[in-house]
Design brief:
It is a single chain. This protein is of the alpha/beta class. It is about 30% helix and about 15% strand. The protein contains six helices and seven strands; from the N terminus they run H-E-H-E-H-E-H-E-E-E-H-E-H. It has a seven-stranded parallel β-sheet, sandwiched between helices. About 30% of the residues are buried.
């Protein structure tokens, strides 16, 4: 055996392979944590959105802009859409013809491994970290996706759950 079997790419290698500037709004894949609880998770999810070419849609709650600013460690601005009322915003997305996928524990949910790649504009909805997606929003979902777990916890935090589903919808996992 000669030399290392794994070669770590340098920051220079990564810069050469990736896009030189932020993507504009592709408006194809949108992560929508519409009932956020913890600000740190929004910044983490924003980084995942950048990684997969998605946008982030959030309500304009008083603390959300500061949470995004604090949690966003990207060097360049990311694509953020402001929603206003979450239910009305979801209704408008459906009226536009978007697929609406909710990350939720539901009887009809598909397993994450069975979730197909987004072939049309898709909004991924994330609920409140303690109570999930509100009942009036569940009726607006085209599909629910469940992330299987074998541990004792009942769910993952919004940033982790959203990141897993975004990578799958983007066709990168």
């Amino acid at each position: 055996m000669n030399g290392p079997q794994v070669r770590v790419r340098t920051p220079h290698d990564l810069r050469r392979e990736r896009r030189p500037r932020p993507h504009s709004c592709w408006d194809h894949l949108v992560a929508a944590p519409l009932w956020p609880l913890h600000g740190a998770n929004l910044g983490t999810l924003l980084r995942t959105c950048d990684a997969v070419g998605a946008c982030l849609a959030v309500p304009r709650l008083p603390w959300v802009p500061e949470a995004l600013e604090r949690g966003n460690t990207l060097r360049r601005p990311a694509c953020v859409h402001w929603t206003g009322n979450p239910i009305r915003w979801l209704e408008r997305q459906r009226d536009r013809g978007s697929a609406v996928v909710g990350v939720e524990l539901a009887e009809e949910a598909v397993r994450l491994a069975d979730l197909p790649t987004a072939r049309r504009r898709t909004v991924m909805v994330l609920g409140h970290e303690q109570t999930g997606i509100p009942g009036e929003a569940l009726d607006l979902l085209d599909l629910a996706v469940e992330i299987p777990m074998v541990g004792t916890g009942s769910s993952l935090n919004v940033a982790v759950a959203g990141s897993l589903v975004l990578y799958r919808l983007a066709g990168l996992a």
